[in-house]
Design goal:
By secondary structure, this protein is mainly alpha-helical. Among the domains are: 371-456, Serine Threonine Protein Phosphatase 5, Tetratricopeptide repeat (Alpha Horseshoe), CATH 1.25.40; 461-617, Tetratricopeptide repeat domain (Serine Threonine Protein Phosphatase 5, Tetratricopeptide repeat). It contains 33 helices and two strands.
Amino acid sequence: MRQKSSLLLLSGVALASFLFVGSVVNAAPGEPAPKAEAPVTFDAAKVRSFSGAFLAARTADVDHDYDTAIALYRKALNFDPANLEIRERLMISLFLKGDFDGGVKEASNLKDDKSVDRITRIVRGLNDIRDGRYETARRVLNYTGPNDLDRLTHQLLAAWAEVGAGKTKHAISSLSTMKGPDWFKVFTDYNLGTMALVAGDTGTARQYLSAAVTNKEAVATAPDTFMRAVIALARLEASAGNKQKALDAVSVGDSMVNNYAPLKALRQSIEKDEKQPQQITTAAQGAAGVLFSIGGALNRQGAEDMVSLYLQISHALDPKSADTLILLGGMAEKLEQPDRAIGYYGDVPQDSPMRRISELQLGVTLADTGKVDDAKKHLKELIASDPSDIRSYIAYGSVLSDAKDYKAMAENYDKAVEVIGSVPKQSDWSIFFQRGIAYERLKQWDKAEPSFRKALELNPGQPQVLNYLGYSLVDMNINLDEGLGMIKKAVDARPDDGYIVDSLGWAYYRMNKFDDAVTELERAVQLRAGDATINDHLGDAYWRVNRKLEAVYQWNRALISEGEDVNREHIKDKIAKGLPPVDTNPSTADRGQTSPAPAQPAPEPAKPAQPEPDKKS
């Protein structure tokens, strides 16, 4: 865990602050920023001043509307051609849009601007590698600064420039002696292995790829790079006629990452003795892989622009890289650009072992665009094409859950359980959990509870399951002590999760422990101020401790907050009349005040596009 955190801290503070433009919105402490409005469209031709063009460009930039931002930054430059800040933002917007050539042109104009030297040096060097100017690239990529991540990135790219120039032995020698933090190793080993592969030195390639695959910290530090190393090693062994060693490499990946679909496809391909081409065969692809690896490792909440920048540059050098396309699709989804995401998923080559992942994610994203029927049809066809692929049921189930089609959702997960068989794996806990949610929503508790308990049996201590099951028990006034204990364990595991803290507060409320309820629900509201159910719960608790003015205030907040599961008519009735006296009969106390589900969105299924570290490791 220390290595994973260290990498995030070394992601380049100056670069991060430069990429993050003007999107901070004032909010109360602990309150999330308001949800962004629909992007405002500006016509650059109608802008008549520098300030108008600049401010409109920044607005478009924040909305990730890069076409509009680029047009407006260029309009601003008509008024002030020497403005460096505008030129810097124009360059970044071009790269984020995917216009590598346009971005490189601006980077060349800014090569003496120290504030963006980190970006311009890399993209100029990559452009030289792409165009075969390897010696020039090596000189451009010379970095002497103190930042570990920048030093690693530049040295890896410079080594690939040497590979392109035919100096692979020197590149491997200099890179293998590079000093740095322990987390460097997965990146250097993978690149050393692929450099040797490009040069045809299978012995050296096997040595370094094996080191990357057996690196215990690699999955936590850089899961995408780890999987690339597994696949490269398996293909190397298969191509060398070592079929069992190739399958052993796949098994190592399987043991570290749950349900990673490309490994299943690769295993089947190796077993059929099909040809195994390597992903990296040129210096340009190797350099693109460096940016992919760094971008994937930095892929965390709040780093979307930085990750997108690395991935777009990587994509320009290796446009058919399946894993880069899938990560770009995921980034587009995070930025609420589903149509763009669908385009990336559709570009994944048909013969790629990652094609099925892209198809699954495409189906989920179709639903996000409102094409729910198309999404259902697409995902049902994927299930029919390979009924043994559990991820297909998860993807289809997520679409059914969002559509509130709980009957079909339950039937879907029933089929998934049949496929799993009588001996489920720990990683199958989410299948039982989702089935439990479906049956709970159908008010078939006799079928929901066994599924929840099976999920806990497979993954004891899983906070989402503890929370959902514990909340349900408390809300139905059955097994109150057990339910409260489950919720407390969930809170201990995730003390800063407002939804789970809300469950604890509501459990106390259901047990008529109103002072304790207020304490926990106030904390939940601080953590999740914009959730309607949590505000509604706190209003109820305030009323019970005779803080009636504050109760009405919270109920009013619930009416304007986000949340589909609250009964808004009932809240209006409470505002008008208050709550009835406390019913001390636990079988009837305050029923009907809330949805029977916890104050949380339906728990997310495993994302088809992303590998997940095995929780056992």
